[in-house]
Each structure stands twice: as structure tokens, then as C-alpha cells.
Amino acid sequence: MRYLPLTEQDRREMLAVIGAKSVDELFRDVPQSARLPGKIAGLPDHQGELEVERAFQAFAAKNISPSAAPSFIGAGAYRHHVPSTVDYMIQRGEFLTSYTPYQPEITQGTLQYLFEFQTQITLLTGMEVANASMYDGSTGTSEAVLMANRVTRRHKALISGGLHPHYRRIIETTARWEGFSTVIGKADVEGLEDLIASIDKETSCVVVQNPSFFGHVRDFTKLAAACHAAGALLIVVVTEVVSLGLIMPPGEMGADIVVCEGQSIGNGLGFGGPYVGLFATREKYMRQMPGRLVGETVDADGKRGFVLTLSTREQHIRREKATSNICTNAGLCALAFTVHLTLLGEAGFRRLAELNHAKASELADRVSAVPGVQLVNESFFNEFTVRLPKPAVPVVEALAARRILGGLPVSRLIPDDLSVANLLLLAATETSTEHGMGPLVSALKEVL
Amino acid sequence: MSTKYTNEHEWIRIEGDVGTIGITSYAQEQLGDVVFVEVPAVGRKVAKGESVAVVESVKAASDIYAPITGEVVESNAALADSPGDVNAEPTGKGWFFKIKFSNKAELDGLMDDAAYDAFVKSLG
Amino acid sequence: MVESLDRSQGRAGAPATAGSSTPATFTGNRALQIEEPLIFEMGQPGRCGVDLPEPPKVKDRLNGLRRNGEIGLPGLSEPQVVQHYTRLSQKNYAIDMGVYPLGSCTMKHNPRINEKVARLAGIGDLHPLQPVSTVQGALELIDSLAHWLKTLTGMPAVAMSPAAGAHGEMCGMMAIAAALEAKGERAKRRIVLAPESAHGTNPATAAALGFTVKPIPANARGRVDLAALKSALGPEVAAIMLTNPNTCGLFESEIIEISKAVHEAGAYFYCDGANFNAIVGRVRPGDLGVDCMHINLHKTFSTPHGGGGPGAGPVVLSAALAPYAPYPWIVKQGDAWTVAEDGAKVDGKPLGRLKAFHGQMGMFTRALAYIMSHGADGLKQAAEDAVLSANYVMAALKDVMTPAFEGPCMHEALFDDSFLKDTGVSTLDFAKAMIDEGYHPMTMYFPLVVHGAMLVEPTESQAKEDLDLFIAAMRSLTERAKSGTAAEDFKAAPRYSPRRRLDETLAARKPILRWRPSNSPPGGDPMRQAAE
Q1: Of chain B's two ends, which shows fewer C-beta atoms within 10 Å, N or C?
Q2: What is the rounded CA–CA span in Å between residue C305 and residue C93?
């Protein structure tokens, strides 16, 4: 077995040093009834690299990748071009095969990039502090609600109907089992929702998304003021982080916690994960944050260095009183994010955002010119909603049969609301081309 | 004026109907360099045994419990900027908060100087 | 004062006692160790590491919310970016470099074929919300991994979506809460039992779900005290959370009696699967009476740790808990695969949803490639070699270090610090001295039940020659520590790492969590400063 260095001779010598006759003796604490007579039945034996690779190519061949078919699906995961440098960097063994930087003397590489990452997140979101990342945007949002409950000592979260339905369901699941209540807005298809009247003295937080799940770009300045007047926190979720290159950041609107899905920068679609959650807040709430934090300090020679800090919030010290049970973050995805964003820089990031908006504008104009298709949005960044003259699910199936990944039928994520049956969510990014948009428009004309 | 000790290594110094609370020298030694102290808001009503403050070092966090029922009348705000006072002067500048109490009898179970010294010695 | 004891040892930031005797260099660099500024100290307006086309002019549809002002991101060219991160990478220790005996973390070899297959366009470049007809291979892949996990654990069901071990714990404990709710017992059963040696995530998870955590004592052999457990069980107990092999590296020899007693009391058995690597292919948790167990794919199945994630924490479930598994899961209908998503008509009462989309697909791919490479025979051999290596290290060091418990151990060897008594050298000092010898230290001060704990997990990935050198280095360190004259020397370690001990007290007292122009060294970029 190519991964196992011990030879039969090694094993015999090692057993002799231990003073055991066989390896079975080392397992003598396993109860007799749980000892298996041999290897587990019904599973194949080891295979060479060639065979394994073939098996995965067979899996891959049964899928249609957006790399080989026009795709307009977004809804919380966006296909962007990731520079080659990013993937090269995250495959360096010193990053890939290192553990959590608990020994700062020999993990300054990880610690410094996380410090740079935290700084980038504060700049993008317009917030004061950020952590070293969460599992993803969806779980990060639920952690933000828990944090708001801790800060306000209240237990009622007000959830916008413009929040991604998966994110909403995760909050509901957390609420159900961890014991707080939620007030859920109706699907905000038109982008006109006003939550101010629903805030009361028990509200711990209001959770909104910008651009919303349906693509609308909203100003939450007044909502933030209303939250603060009532002693609640405003949580702003961003599922398309590239939008922050073009749209006023949540920090400027008065958000108290900002959670982003960072996948768009540096991380591929990957069929849904792993992604990287970005989490930022105000300095006064720093000690209520979940997740790891990297801080600057000096070493014994007085040189600048970085360490994990404020760890007393975390489970390995605070145990049942921790701010969260989270142990890990999304280190390598955060590295991919920070390398990509460093390549982009101020100029590149802004231009990328402009390009996305321009491509989406073009797509919106062309699709809404198809007879029967109606553009719902007045505002959007790189994703918008259209109303079709018939249910969207069979339309998308028919497009898929023509090898076009023609957006997301909203009803897939909101199955219990018949009013969304005809809605289709379409996204465009810098990767969208005429070779994709043209066929989509012609195919739509055929299938509608 | 008298000082009493809890088996959680807190001290309470009684002056009239007000008790000043902090942690003992032994406690600060066990914690190591104190990096953060969260003290209760003035005016907060606390019950004996309730967790009212937190003291943290780099690797440990400890809750501070009210040794007596009453109202917080003063908190040591200076600790926010100089948590090291808890290490330097645990029974002086490093005090945490003051409680105005009504039932002094609640202090009856606490240790005096000699009893606390013996208690610490018993911990080895 | 409840939880202060013994975790404050080895205050970082102890002042340097021994200066470096080697002369300083002009740049501050030392050959391959290059001092590296922050990107914010390197950027120049006008530089960019990507070339993007000029965007066509379109009318804004941004609701008047165009971002004004500088974001503040630095501009760097591609070669600068490559050099920056390459230099940073060289400040890290990694599995690829050598022995990484970090107990309870299972730092084993990360095969590169796993990386390669995860990047096939037909796997890595798929949108999670594509029509299921276009992702049949992806769903089959997830289902194949699920099949392996169920078969290896002897459990009937698995929830694939949890993003990491702690997330898996949350999933498993929610399933237990859901099962109790279905029986009308959730309000009554509020207590979760966990040994004091448990991972911190266990009590954190239980407490988040509103359970009260009660410790169960260990016996002198480092296992759960069965009699004490039995007396703690009762109508108020919801579950026991137990790691097996436990965090002391020992197999819970009375595990079947434990699970029997737990079930007889109407409670559930949550097994923390962090240490599954010791028994995979040899013992099935299902045969031990486990109700649910998370599997850290990044430990047992070698998906890369990546400097702290991403992980993946699928949870296998017993028949009693399977009906409560969260959305989504893969269903095979005839020859086709589909996904049961929120709102789908299903049997059972799903507890909800824990993560967007389908879980950590990239980790599933890598784990499945690892599993298929090993096969049933190789996985069993890997577990045996991991256990053999740990016992070998323990046997070879037991005369100079102090094993916390009688052997044999499973895949990790636990020592206490009594061999350092009166030497003036602490566990932390000892660990830091290992750094200078070229090793990543073992896990320290965990589990909490052992004084000055040192938890060594060599894994199956090290050749015997490398284990022998490691053992020899450890023996040499113990000899130096016991000489009685080297305490200062140990306290000054490490000396040869990119940084020496860092002042963690300063970091926590005055937290600096981001770069600002004002907290750069005077003059900005230290490199440029040196050149001037």
C-alpha cells in the first residue's frame, strides 16, 4: 500500500520493542463481541492511482459542468474566473498540510495571511473587526443571530423575506433546537419589504440580505437606525461578495454584523462546498464574536508576529460557556480568498464588479425582450428575477436538455409558496459570454 | 472592617453595609497574566452565588460569583485599561466591584484570613 | 473561580533570556528565512495582478447605492503576490515536512491524487443548484461515500451535510433532541453526561442546545467509571457524549456495558468520532451500541487540514435516530439519483437544515479517493499501523518519560509531566524545544484530566527510521531537561524558528485584529526601510 511506509520487518521489530506478539494484542481492550474476524465484508480492496482516477473520471463524465455548458445559476454560489496563482498557492504543502496555527513560532505563514484576510474583510464590509472565517455564509448567518441574542440578551430574530431560503432554514433549525423565536418575512419578490414596523422591544436582530435573494439592491440605513432605537442589531448578509466592489458597504449603512459568503473570490463552485464565511462586526462586540481571531503582537526578540488571540471565547477553553461550539474555520478557502483579492487589488476588484454588473444588465435586457418574460427587478447587481408565462421547473429542465444551465427555478428553494412557481433567478458574471447568452435567449424562445 | 474569603478564591472586604470584591493573590497566580476583566454595571441587583464578572488570562477564563446578595454600587472601570492591576495588586488596585448588601448573615459561611491560608495550603 | 487551573502555564512572552550569538544581517533575513511585510505595506496604486477587459458602459441599476471612496485594498502585481505567499508558506510547519505528532488531530499524509480528482471540471466545477439530471455523477459520488461510511461504521444512515466535526456534533445532538421530542421526553431529559476528558466542543454543543452538562468521572485506568456512570443515569438524562477511543488514547473496554446501561435508562449514546482512525476497518461503532457518531473526514480520511479547515463532519445514525436526519440527502430512484430537499415529502421527521446546498463536496471527493485507494484491506492496515506506531513510541519512551496510563494505547500515546518534576522545565518549554529539533510539538495540556499532558499521535504515515529519529530526539531532550542545568535553555526555545515565543498577553490585552496605517512599523515597509 503506497501510503504506508512500515514493512513487515518494521512491524515485527516494533512489536518486539513493545513486547507484544501481534498487533491483535494491542487491540485487546476491544470487547470480544465487537472484534471482527477479518476485514469488513462487502467492500473492495486497495487500488492504484490510475484506477482511482478512472473511477472519478467516470463520476465526472455523468455531470454537465458549467465549464462545458452556458450557465446562469447563482443563488448564493457564483461562477467566477479564479486565477491560476490562487490554486497553485493553496496547493503548496506548507499551507495545505498544516494544522490550525496553535504553535505560532512555526505557523507565521498561516497567521499572517489570516491577519491580512481579516483586514481585507473589514475594508470590504466597512466594519471594524473581522474573524478568521466561518464554515460558510449560511452557517455564519446563524452564528450571527446567536451572537445578537447574546449581545442584546433577547431571543427573537426578525428574518427578511429577501434572505436566501437555505440561510433562513438554518436559522429556523437553530432557533428550534437552541431555543429562540423567529419572525419570518414573506418571500420578498418585489424588493419592497419594510421591516421597521415589525421591530419591537423583544427583537434581538433583523437579518436582511443585500443584494437580496431575488437580486434587489436595498438601502438599509433607516432600518439600521430603527434597530438601534429599539436596542436590536442589524445583520446584513451578502451572498455575492463581488457586489461590494460596486455597492455601498453594509458598514456605511449602519450594520452591526455583516456576514458574507466569500466563495466568489478565489473559490470554485465545487457543488456547494467547501466555501468560506466572512464575519465582521463592530469593535464593541469583539468579545462576543464566534470563531478564531488572529492578532498582532511581538516575539521574544521584539519582532512583529501574529497569534491566535481572545481564545477564551472559544470551546477549547470556555467549554459549555463558549460563544460557539465551532472549532475550525475555513483556513484554506480563506487563503484562496485572500490571494485572489490581493491579485485583484483596489482597481481589479472594482473593475470585476463593474464587469459583473454590465454583463447582468445585458442579460436582463436580452432575456426580458423574449416574449412573455417579465423582468421583476428595478435594481440588481449581477442577478435578477424574471417572471415566466409558465412554471419555471419544466422550462429549466427543457433548457438542461439543450445543455444550457438556465438559472434557478425559485420554487426549488421555496417549494411551499405557489406564487413563486413561475419565477426564474438568473445570474451573469465576467465569465458570461455571447456564446452563452445567445443560445439561452434562443432556447427560451423555443421552450416558452 | 473585616475581610472574608470564598472557596472560589474571592475576597470581600466589609465596610459598613458595602463589600468590596476581588480575587486573591493565589487566584491571580493560578490564572497567570490577566488580560481582560468584565465588571458588572452599577445598579445591577445580584443574588448570592450569581455569576457577575469574568476574569480572563490568555488561556483561562473564570467567572466571579457574588458572595452576597445586594446591589452593585461601584465597579472598577480602570481594569478595562489596566487588567494587569489584578496581578500586581489583587487586593488593592485590582478590586472588581462593590456591593451594598442588607443581609450580612450571608457572609457567615465564608473563611477568615487564617482559614483561607489553611485552605490554600491544603491545595498544595 | 471555576475553570482556571493549569491552563495558564507557560505564559507566552516570557522575556528572551539568551540573545542570538549570530551576527545580524543587513536585511534582517536569514538565508531562506525572509522577513515579509504585510500586503498593505507593499501595495502601490497602479499595480494590479489581473487583466480584466474594460467594462462596457451601462446605466447603473444599483438603486442609487454606488460605493463611493477608496476601499483601501493594496495593488500588487502577480509576481509580487507569488513571492509574498511563497515566503509566508516557508514560515509554516506541515505534514509534508515531517513528523507532526499532534494528538487528537490525526496529521497523516495527504495524498495528491485526492487534490487532482477534486479539481476535475466535472466534479469541482459544478453548481450546487443545477438540475439533478445534470449532476448524476456528483450525487452518485456522495452516495458512494455514504455507503462506505455506513459500512465501515455498521450504521444504517448517515447525514452528510455537517461542515466539520463540531457541526456534526450539533447535528447528532439535535437528532437526539428530536428523538426525545418525538417521545415527549425533551422537557424532562435535560442532562448530558460527558467525561472531563472530553473535547471542549462536546460541552459547548450540549450547552448550546440547552442541556446541562454533568461530568462523569474516570477510573484509575483512564476509562469511564462504569459504576459512577450507572448511578448518574436516570430519567433526566438525555445522552452520554463519549469519545472512543477516548481522548487519553485508550479504548473504552466497557463500552458495551456503557451503551447498554445508557439505553436501559432511556438515553442515547453520542460517540465523538475524532479518534476513529485507530479502529477503522477493525471495529464498527454500530457493534458498540452507538446511536450517532460524527466522522472528521479531515482526520480519519485525510482531507487536508489546510491551516485550520475546511473540514467535513458527516454523522452516522442508528435506526432510532435516522428518521430525524437533516435535509438534504441523496435518494436513488431506479437508475437515477435525486436529492431530498426542504419540503420534500419524506418518511421521518427531518430536524431541519444545517448548511446551504449539499455539504462539503470537495472534502467528500478527497475522502472517497483516499478510501478507494486504501480499500477495506488498506484502511484496516492503516489503523493497525497507527496503533502500532503509537505503542512503539510509548514503549521506546516509557523509561524516560511518564506514560499517564498503562498500555497498550490506541493511536496516541499520552504522557504526563511528572518526568519533568523539579527540572524547572514545563510541558510548554519541552514542546517549544521540540520545534528547534525540527518537529511540530505534540498536543499539550489536553486532555485536562492529566497534569501537563503531552498527547503524541504519530499516525501510520511515518517510516520506522523517522519514528526512531523522533524517539532519539525526545530521549535527548528528556536527558537535557533532567540534567538540572538546562531550564533557562528550554525557556528560551525555540531559537531557530521564524519567530521565537510570542507575547500572547500583549496580543490579548490590546487586541490588534487588523492592519491600520498607524500600526505598521515606523517608516512602513521594513524592507524598504532597510534599503534606504
Answers
A1: C
A2: 12
